[in-house]
Design goal:
InterPro entries: F1F0-ATPsyn_F_prd. This protein is mainly α and 100 residues long. 52% of the residues lie in helices and 6% in strands.
Amino acid sequence: MRHEVRNQNTADGTKGALTERSLGQVRLRELPQWLAYKTPSHPKDVVKMVQGGWQWYNKKYFEVKKGGIGGLSMLLAGYCAISYIWSYSHIKRDRRRKYH
């Protein structure tokens, strides 16, 4: 799938190619095209995206001068949510049993 890079002007004055904009600069009607461009086409691209996201998270919440518990608590909350989603079918099956 080939995407053309072209300069676009939006109503709020955001200039530049759609592929070069961040998520906050993309208008709602342009979102499907932006997501299609950002979708990885190769497994190496997925690994790069995950590594980049982890590096950003690590720099923002762990490698700071005055750190707090916020970064670690968000990571723990995310782990709890994911583990709950993964085990939901087992929890749902156990919930229907009657113990008497």
